[in-house]
Every structure is written in C-alpha cells, then in structure tokens.
Amino acid sequence: MTLRLEGLGKEFVPGLPVLEGIDLTVEPGGFVCVVGASGSGKSTLLSLIAGLTRPTAGRVLLDGQEVTGPGPERGLVFQTASLYPWRTVAGNVAFGLEAMGMPRARRDARVAGLLDEVGLRHLAGALPGRLSGGQQQRVAIARALACSPRVLLLDEPFGALDVQTKEDMQVFVRQVWRDVGTTVIMVTHDVEEAVFLGRRVIVLSCDPGRVARDLAVDLPADRTLADKRSTAFLALRVEVEDLVRAEHRAHQARV
Amino acid sequence: MTPHPAATQAGETADQKPDPVTGPDPGPVTGPVTGPVGDTATGPVDGGATGLAPPRPGRRIRPLSGSVTARTAWTLRALSVLGPLAAWWALSASGAVNPAFLPSPAAVWDAGVRMAVSGDLWSDLAASLGRIGLGFLLAVLISVPLGFTMGALPWAQALLEPIVGLLRYLPASAFIPLLIIWLGIGEASKVALLVLGVVFFNTLMTADVVRRVPRRLLEVSATLGAGRPRVAARVVFPYALPGIIDAMRVNAAAAWNFVVVAELIAATSGLGYRITRAQRFLQTDRIFAILVVIGLIGLTIDVTLRLLRARVGRWSA
Fold it and tell me: Alpha helices of A118-230 — where are they, by DSSP H?
C-alpha cells in the first residue's frame, strides 16, 4: 500500500487556503506523525485522506486509486472516542464487520482476537460509558483495525488523556502498529509524542498549511519510554519544537 | 506589531517584582507564610484595581448547585400532592363555599364509585382511551418518520421546516368546526383533531433530536464502510431513540388534552362527554371525579413512557 498526496490543497473560504501544495508519499507500513501549531490544517489533512472532505486542489491516491469518499480501508480514530454509546465494547468493534456483511461466527472470532490485541477482552460486554478515556480509545482503535485498514488515521487520539495514560497509550499504539503492520498516519500537537512514535515526522507550516519539514526519525525501532531521555531523542525533539514554535509565533502575529 | 515576542522579551529582561511572599515577611520561615501574607497582598491590590471595597473574607457563597437529601425530596413530593388536597378538604368542610360549586373530597369519591358501579365510567374511559390510542399512533407514525427525515437530510429540512413550523402555530382547537364539516361528528373528526394537535410538534421535536447526533459519530461510521441507509438505521436511530421517546412523552400530554376537548364539543361517549352531561345537571361532584380520572390516566401515560425511555436509554444514563 502506498499513499500519495499530490498537490493537495483545501480552501473552505475561497482565497483562504487551509492547506496548499501538499506533496507526500507514505511508504507501506510507515508510521508518520504530522505536527503543527493550531491552524496548520493538520486535522483537515487527515479528513482529506479519510475522504470525509473533498480537496479543492490536487488529489489523494491510495495504490494509484484516487480517494473520492470515506471507506473502511482508511480507518479513522478521533480525539474523543466517538464510540456508539448504546453498543457494548464488542458491538462497537463489530460495527465495520457488520457493514461488510461478515458472517456472525467469523465476526465474533475476529472481534475476540482484536479485544485480545488491545487488552480489553474482559470488558467485551461493557458499555462505553463505563470505560476510562484510555480504554475508550483502545476500543476506537480496535474498531478501526477490525476492517483491516491499509491506513490507520489517528487524529490527536491521546489529546484528551492524562499524561500517564497517554504514555501507556503511546507504547500500546506502537505495539499494535508492529503487530498489525498497517500504515499509521497520526496528527498531534505533542512534539514529544510525534518523535517517540513516528518513523517520520512532518512539520506543517501555518496559513496555509504546507510541508515545512520532513524529518526521518533515526531512533531504534524498538523504543521504550526510557528512550525519551536519550540525547538523540532530545535533539530531534528540540529541532521539531523550534519549528512548530516559530510557526505558532508567525501565526499569532498574523491574526 | 509583534506583541508576543516583544512581551516575552520585556518580561525576561525587566526587573523582577519583589516576591509578595518573601518580600514583606523575611522572618520566620516556619510560620504561617501563605495565610496572612496572601491576604494582605491580594486585598488592597484588588480593591485598588476595581475601586471597590476588598471582599469580606468571611462571606459565605452558596453555589446554585446544592442538592437535597432523598428524605427531604420525598417529603416535599408528598406535600406537593397532599397540600392542595388538604386545602380542598378544609375549604369544603368549612362550609364557606356552596357544595354545588365545590363538592367535598368524600362526595367526589362517592360520585366516582357510583359511576364505576353503573359502568358509565368504564365505557367512557374505553372510548377516550381508544381515541387517544388510535390518534396518537397515527400521529407518531406520521411525525417520527417525517421528523427523522427532516433531521437527517438538510434538503428535507429546508423543504418541510417552514410549512411544519407554520402549521404548528395554528391552534388545533380552531380546526374543530372545519373538521366537523369535513368529517362529521363521528370518530374521524376526534381522531383528526388529536393528530392535528400533535403531529407538527412531534415532527419538529423529533427532527431536533435527530439533528443532535454528533457529526463525529456519523463520520466514523462512514469510514467503517456504512452507507447512508445503514448509518440512519444503525447509528442515527438508536442514538436518537431516547430523545424521540421524550418528545412523544411531552406530546402525549397534549394528545390526551385534545381527546377531552374533542369530546366536550361533540360526542356521545368519552370522559369529555361525561363532563358536559354532568354540567347539564349541575353534578359538580361527577365533574371533579372525571377530572381526577383524566389526571390519573395522564400520569399513567407519562410514567409508562418514562419507564420505556429509561429502559431504551440505559446507555445514556
């Protein structure tokens, strides 16, 4: 699977592009983190890849095929778990499989396997309202993974979590990515998170959002939380932070 | 103008203000540092800034978020019913009001029992309940799909909301003469009045509930491969159902009112008809008894729909 963005641009108000001239190729199995200050259009970028928003310029190509609408091969997870509150955890994970028309027995087996993967098998029958924020996000990720997406799109998935839970979820999502092998594109405003998770970090500029920097993360593939204190990690983090801060300042000065 | 960098620059280079904590009280470190120093530091500064007297420290602020104990709540609930009942009893027992105008609770009870024994009460009750059953069912069958469509599809909203919003303001009771001309004085005109009185409100309220389904939920559903019919049936409908039942509950009260109104005007059966008959013979005790029955039936409808909503909407609790 190769995801290509070609000259991608979006204007909600004519003459005021939110995103402009985004050219990007994501290699199969990659983990790309997109960072940028508020107003850089990073969520819009994800929405365009998901097919929920139509670009006003350029196009999104998945294996050479133009994306024209949403579909299960591009799974999406939002910041606040948009779970179906009346469905159990298992029922939530099963939603996409039902839409696919997968027979009951195979569906149940797949849901059970996914709940094992995200460590929530014991909560299969619980309603989302009873879960913690981190557990809800695990369900949302399992639900997106159920459809075997070629790309998993994460829109600030841990932005609403407390710091400790957030770190647990970072380790978790890295583990899932290594187990499942799907391509992940994650939008975040947390630079540390981006550098820790990504094999590649894209920094977006503001007004309009463009690719300001495309950095490869030269850190070991097996990362633990302790790596957040290594000199290589900190150097990269500082570099990205300075870029994002400069964009933020420039954006503030314009508004 | 670049306010932000400039401001931070200034902040970093300017002389540090004397720390309010360590400044005036350099003495005992072990003493109560924050308490008194904090008071003297904030008090005059605030007063100077607003031009008002400093806030009195002991002032008790009661937030408007207090709750009552379960016991108090139940006492007040009992009082809410028993209070007016006691007042009624006291007023009629005092002899200040002619019993022909205000019968005693005991007389009303007797009248109710007499009607129950003669069977009139049951046949009238059955007639009224039959009308609300049929009329409300029709109203729901029309308004829920209509409101759902309006709430889910912007074009349907644009097409229907102006006319439904307008019709809602026409009082259904004003249609009674027209309905009698069109449909006669039989069952049809009574059921039609009920439908007219309920259908527009319920449509708009259903549409509102449907519109409140979070956009994120609809977007996620699309990325999971669910098309519009599936999203409508498996996402929007279950999400909106508790709210739809809430709307039905509110409008069921109106429906029950319209049944009685329709029966007051032209009918040969029903609780409203029984009231007009009693009026002819100045049987106020019967009128009161029927009003009590009407109230109790209304309460039963309300409680039933509340229970249904609690059951359907367990997840939203």
Answer: 133-146, 163-180, 191-197
Do A144 and B223 lie within an 8 Å CB cutoff?
Answer: yes
Nearest CA-CA distance, residue B225 and chain A, Å: 5
* DSSP structure string for A73-133: TEEEE-SS----TTS-HHHHHHHHHHHHT--HHHHHHHHHHHHHHTT-GGGTT--GGGS-H
Whether residues B219 and A99 touch (CB distance < 8 A) is answered with: no
Q: Can you tell me whether residue A206 is helix, strand or coil?
A: coil
Encoded tokens for A111: 């849901």
Residues with Cβ within 8 Å of residue B266, at least 6 apart in sequence? B180, B185, B189
Measured N-to-C along each axis, helices B284-312 and B237-265 cross at an angle, to the nearest 10 degrees, of 170
Give me the pLDDT at residue B36, please: 44
**Alpha carbon of A157 to those of A51, A138, A204, B167, B206: distances in Å?**
18, 10, 18, 46, 32
> Do the chains contact at B224 and A143, CB–CB below 8 Å?
yes
> A188: part of which helix (H) or strand (E)?
strand A183-188
Q: Between vectors from CA A177 to CA A172 and to CA A178, what angle results, nearest 5°? A: 100
Instruction: Please name the member of A144, A147, A249 whose beta carbon is closest to the beta carbon of B4.
Output: A249
Beta-bridge mates of residue A35: A188, A203
Write the DSSP symbol of residue B18: P
Sorted by where each begins, the domain ranges of chain B are: 101-316
Is the CB of residue A155 less than 8 Å from the CB of residue A144?
Answer: no
Task: Give A229 or B3, the one with higher predicted confidence.
Answer: A229
CATH code of A1-19+29-73+149-255, in short, is 3.40.50.300
Please, which residues have CB within 8 angstroms of residue B192's CB and are 6 or more apart in sequence? B135, B175, B179, B183
How far apart CA B163 and CA A241 sit, in angstroms, is 56
- pLDDT for res B49: 64
Chain B residue numbers touching A136 (CB-CB < 8 A): none
Inter-chain CB proximity B222 and A52 less than 8 Å: yes
Domain extents in chain A? 1-19+29-73+149-255, 84-148
**Per-position b or e across A211-239, b if 16+ CB within 10 A of its CB:** bbeebebebeeebeeeebeeeebeebbeb
Q: At B301, list the tokens.
A: 């409808």
CATH of domain B101-316: 1.10.3720.10
The answer to which of B30-39, B149-158, B220-229 has the lowest mean pLDDT is: B30-39
Residue B48's pLDDT is 54
Which residue in this structure is represented by tokens 């931070």?
B8
If you ran DSSP here, which 8-state letter would residue A57 be given? E
In this structure, the strands spanning A74-77 and A151-155 are: parallel
How many Å separate Cα B101 from the centre of its chain?
33
- Residues A71, B5: C-beta atoms closer than 8 Å: no
The tens digit of pLDDT for each residue in B35-87 reads: 444 444 444 455 456 778 777 777 788 888 778 899 999 999 999 999 999 99
